[in-house]
Write a structure and sequence with these properties.
472 residues, alpha+beta, Beta-Lactamase, Helix Hairpins, Heat Shock Protein 90, 3 domains
Length: 472
């Protein structure tokens, strides 16, 4: 039940508001109660001063005793208050009862001389009627005989209790009603606020690998939910691109693997159709099978390298070596292929270049670039490799004098299984053709070493590929 975000938001909202309302109600009740008691005390104190003034006036006329105190009370008209005057021995001298014949109630302990008025509250004595009261005791001395009097004034607390009970009833009714309305409003607002989430959830449930082109609805791209939906849509776009690349990779890989397998199977079947064949025919068939098996092995190895690249965290075998020695060794191996096409392989003096990286992968990168340049350079052309050492990086350049790459397909040459056969002539007389994986693998190796591979130039004079490798 509490798994619903809508319900949890509503409960949190109602819970926080209930704490605020209860605290506010308690504060209001205390404030009103204090205000009513302060007003009541002010009324009692005002009556106390009035009685004191009346007694002092009687003292000035030199009248004392019960009759004088009684006349002092007659000058006052306080029907809601009971007033009594006592002497120092505690004897009642005069009393004015309140309405409904309510007499003065004395606090406990008994009245004693005090330097200032003392307020007190007494609970009700009879459960049938509210006779609780608030009282004040004051002491004065009246000249010229310095006669001491104790003045006691009581006023019923029933009006105060009625006001407080009414306020309490109002708060008891208002707080639950406010919380109920708040809960309903919070539930409605939470539902409206989370409606985009429900729509996104319903749409996301319908998205699978077959329909990654669908996107989540974005109600308001400027709020948090809209930003979440936009981010998820970007993720779906990346996943769709990745799935498309994987499907294309599988299709292209199947096509490339099918060609040598078909040649091997066809050659073997044709050779085995006749029992008696010349030895040279068998050798020719085995040569074709060996070439296609070599091509098949190279495609599988290249696909394995790309699988490592797709894993995202390739494990590089980091060692320290000299980059110039690696280039020299790879160039000597490529010189055999160049000589078969009567190509001139130019290698200027290479500067000493200590480097730290995966020597095997870098050797494969350089070999792929040289092999690519030799394939696309016509007979009698030239291939040049150079190394330049800069402050922060090494620059390896592989240039050929082959035909140019059309500008519209230059951005595509680093895609897997892409071969620009129409732009550059391919010579496959002496060795098997590639599968279009050489340049993608070379770029990945450069990026794995925090470098980059770029096509710097391609025109009538040939093409130039440049590798930038950081020295650190």
């Amino acid at each position: 039940m509490f798994d619903s975000v809508r319900l949890r938001l509503t409960l949190w909202y109602v819970g926080v508001l209930s704490v605020i309302l209860i605290a506010f109600s308690v504060a209001i009740y205390i404030f009103v109660e204090r205000s009513l008691y302060e007003r009541l005390d002010a009324s009692l104190y005002s009556t106390l001063e009035a009685v004191s003034v009346a007694l002092e006036h009687q003292g000035e006329t030199k009248e004392i005793g019960s009759e004088a105190t009684a006349r002092a009370l007659q000058e006052l008209h306080r029907p809601d208050q009971a007033i009594a005057i006592f002497d120092v021995q505690g004897r009642l001298l005069a009393e004015q009862v309140a309405e409904d014949a309510v007499h003065v109630r004395l606090p406990s302990p008994a009245v004693a001389p005090l330097s200032s008025p003392s307020f007190y509250s007494l609970p009700e004595q009879n459960s049938e009627s509210d006779d609780s009261c608030r009282g004040v005791v004051g002491h004065i001395r009246v000249p010229p005989r310095d006669t001491a009097y104790a003045i006691v004034i009581n006023q019923s607390l029933e009006p105060v209790s009625e006001h407080l009970d009414l306020l309490q009833d109002i708060l008891y009714a208002a707080v639950p009603l406010a919380l109920t309305l708040t809960g309903l409003g919070g539930w409605f607002l939470a539902r409206r606020s989370l409606q985009p989430v429900a729509a996104m959830s319903a749409r996301a449930q319908r998205i699978s690998a077959e329909n990654l082109d669908q996107r989540l609805p974005v109600a308001n791209p400027r709020d948090e939910l809209g930003s979440l939906a936009a981010t998820f849509n970007e993720l779906l776009g990346r996943l769709g691109t990745s799935f498309s690349q994987q499907r294309q990779f599988m299709a292209d890989a199947s096509h490339e693997l099918r060609t040598p397998l078909s040649v091997i199977r066809t050659t073997s079947a044709v050779t085995l159709q006749q029992e008696d064949r010349e030895k040279s025919e068998y050798r020719e068939a085995l040569t074709i099978v060996e070439q296609q098996a070599r091509r098949l092995s190279r495609i599988v190895e290249d696909m394995f390298v790309l699988a490592r690249a797709d894993a995202g965290h390739p494990s590089l075998q980091i060692t320290e070596f000299y980059l110039d020695e690696l280039l020299a060794e790879t160039t000597r191996a490529a010189a055999v292929l160049a000589s078969q096409k009567s190509l001139q392989l130019e290698v200027p003096p290479l500067p000493e270049a200590p480097f730290r990286g995966d020597e095997g992968l870098l050797r494969q990168m350089v070999w792929n670039l040289l092999d690519n340049a030799i394939k696309y350079t016509p007979k009698g052309g030239a291939v040049r490799i150079a190394l330049v050492s800069r402050d922060a990086e090494y620059v390896v350049t592989v240039a050929d004098t082959g035909s140019s790459i059309a500008p519209e397909i230059q951005p595509l040459i680093f895609e897997r299984f892409y071969r620009a056969d129409k732009a550059r002539s391919r010579s496959e007389t002496m060795h098997e053709g590639g599968a279009g994986l050489g340049l993608p693998i070379a770029r990945w190796i450069a990026e794995a070493h925090h470098g980059r591979l770029e096509l710097q130039h391609s025109g009538e004079t040939g093409s130039t590929f440049v590798v930038f490798l950081p020295r650190a």
